[in-house]
Amino acid sequence: MEGREFDAQVVLSPKKSPRGQLLSQYVCVRITRMDDVDIALFERDWNNTLYFFMMNADERIYMRWGGRDARGPEAYLNLDSLEVALAQGLELHRIDKAGGLPEFTRPKPRFPREIPPLVERTFARRQCVECHLIGDFDLVHKEEQTGNTDRIANMYRWPDIRTLGMELDVPKGLMVKESKGAVQTAGMRAGDRIASLEGTPVYTFADLQHRLDKVQRSAKQVQIGIERGAAKQTLTVALPERWWLTDLRFRQLSVDPRAEFDCRPLTAEEKTRLELPADGFAGEVTRIGGFAEMLRMHELKPGDIVTAVDGVVRDEVANTPDLFIKLRRNAGDTVMLDVIRGGKKMKMEAKTQRMYFRK
Amino acid sequence: MLGFHLRRLAAALPLLLLSSAALVHAQDDETVEWLGDYKQALAEAKRTGKPLFVEYRCEP
């Protein structure tokens, strides 16, 4: 369901409907201005226009609800799932009032006005503080402060649970619909309910994604607690290489430098046939960005094979040349690509660009 | 089945046309009550002992 319709369905819930009866047990508040939001307390994926929190009057957050992935903003927006979460939130509140929840530490408050580039670009111009701008300018500020030393964690926020092999039965909350890859190897099955990640209880997809985002990108494994019927167990999941890698196209403002081309990694057979190193990051160009021609950044075409960047053919992290550029080069750099086009080897210069608002 | 979907669409259409501000004003006695002020909501939750359900809606 599209966000605007979903929003309307929630806000205009009839009191007598099952959802309305659940909502009536909460104090419901809808906030449309982000200017004074405590972004530490209400930390979330800022590339969502709709997000919900269940909490108590002492600002203890019981759970988050919402979230998205590269498929689209509506991937996890589901009214049945929301009702499941609302019921869980009431149960957590009951337990909380009975003193059954562990101590919590409220994060130190932080507000959008504490992000200097956001102040310059929105508050000072009396423009709307859009959610994604909070995330984008917070990243810019962090880069300015730290020298952008951890690009993977900064750029690739909010990893996709599907990369670990988890496909949820969305209307049923954290019920696993399909288990593949790393989680299947660890023993997760369809029908399991995900209950915790790294020891932190999770109740919703948003909780799970929020906790997964806290995992060090260099981590090799995570502990996932599951419930299978009445049985509980903890699975040790070996994280696949580049488990944090996501499609950044819907987060394009967080990408810097911009290379304006995407590649798929070559298969082992393709590398052998082209006499390329098996552990190299050679890739086939699959997409040319819209600005490439306009800004005369490069002359790559879909189908080209990029085998090296500035003579470098392998990297400990990157598995494609475009990822290598994002991780190892700075915005504004010009790089020399080794390209195979139609069987013919050639060299090609490629310029990278800085996001307009970072200039 | 088609009639069902058309009825649902017809019912949802007015909601889709509402702006964010108008959405809250569209509430009536039959629909769930929403506040628009976070601090007021916190105070209300303290007073009633209810939990809070906080919606952040960003309209680009």
Shape call of chain B? globular
User: What's the helix count of chain B?
Assistant: 3
Give the class of chain B from helix and strand content and strand pairing. mainly alpha
Helix content of chain A: 25-40%
Low-confidence spans of chain A:
none
CATH architecture of the domain at 261-351 in chain A: Roll
Tell me what portion of residues of chain B adopts beta-strand conformation: 5-15%
Q: Rg of chain A, please? A: 23 Å
Strand order of the largest sheet of chain A: 10-11-12-13-14
In short:
The complex is a heterodimer of chains A (359) and B (60). Chain A has 359 residues and is an alpha+beta fold. Chain A has helices at residues 3-11, 18-23, 79-97, 116-123, 131-146, 151-155, 181-186, 205-213, 268-273, 291-294, 321-328; strands spanning 27-31, 50-55, 61-66, 166-168, 176-179, 193-197, 200-201, 221-228, 231-238, 261-265, 283-288, 305-309, 334-341, 344-351.
